[in-house]
Amino acid sequence: MVTETSSSSQATQNPGRLEQSNPDYDPNIVIEAQNLTKVYRDFWGRQKVRALNALDLEVRKGEIFGLLGPNGSGKSTTIKLLLGLLFPTGGRAIVLGENATDVAKNERIGYLPEESYLYKFLNAEETLDFYGRLFDIPAKVRKERVQELIQLVGLEKAKRRQLREYSKGMTRRIGLAQALINDPELILLDEPTSGLDPLGTRDMKDMILKLRDQGKTVVMCSHLLADVEDVCDRIAILFQGDLKEMGRVDSLLKVSGETQIKAENLPESAHEEIRQLIAKHGGQNIVVDNPRTTLEDLFLNIVRESEERPGMRSSSSTGGDADSGTAAADQSN
């Protein structure tokens, strides 16, 4: 049973309440992984599987960062290492300026697992109130926060229904609300659109974008590549524990060496003419840019290439972001 607390300290109302103990803390770097490695061993201590191999990445404040990869690529292991649920075999991860193994920093983090384990006999209001009590949020603040989150995830009409009556999509919504109850600085989402219909998927993506607009940092894992393409600022693609590609989505999806020209209201007679003639023939909204591939095609090409040539990717064929710390570019230098 959770007991009510009457504490109204600043620490209770502000999830960023831990005193920063790292003198080198850069508030603009929310997550920093350096040579992060995880090896699972059998009963006799022999290496069973290398789940993550020398991962280097940075996640910056206020961005949506996507972790992509097939099953067994190391995504879930990375999330568990960041939460301090696993200890690294090598390297380290710094989260919100603290070592990831320090679980005290988790009070500043919101986490939506792939499967939400909630109490089915509670309704939405009771569920959020319960988790608010776990964070010692004062009663008045908690009540306001519960109603705010229920409205955010669109469950006003179902807030008094028991969770056992919820659909998969509704369960994902209340799971997201639960992850946000402590007003976290960093939000980790594992397959956030799983089980949602197209309208629910659009709503979930809009909520993720709204979190970024509020200054939150979001890290999301997903197999639904179109969803990642819609909302993520930067992505990292993992395969068999190795980082294969990292950079801005718009940079990674550009097809170098090709140019496309788009215009509205252009007569058929002008289709073969050069760019300067488009304006002469009344073309509107002229766009001259690199054509883009899709995130799905990029992802599948990297996986196929990795299967054919195991190991770290030696070169980037997609023109990544120069300042994004692209692992592939680093490996080619």
Strand percentage lies at 15-25%
Element order, helices and strands? HEEEHEEEHHHEHEHEEHEHEHH
Major sheet description:
6 strands, mixed
Strand order of the largest sheet: 6-7-8-3-9-10
* Category from helices, strands and their pairing: alpha/beta
The fold-level CATH name of the largest domain is Rossmann fold
Q: Would you identify the CATH architecture of the largest domain?
A: 3-Layer(aba) Sandwich
Helix coverage percent: 25-40%
| Nearest-integer average pLDDT | 81
Assembly level: single chain
- Total beta strands: 12
Low-confidence stretches: 1-18, 314-333
Look at the structure and name the CATH superfamily of the largest domain.
P-loop containing nucleotide triphosphate hydrolases
Q: What does the radius of gyration come to? A: 23 Å
Please give the domain count: 2
| Intertermini distance | 58 Å
Shape: globular
CATH class of the largest domain: Alpha Beta
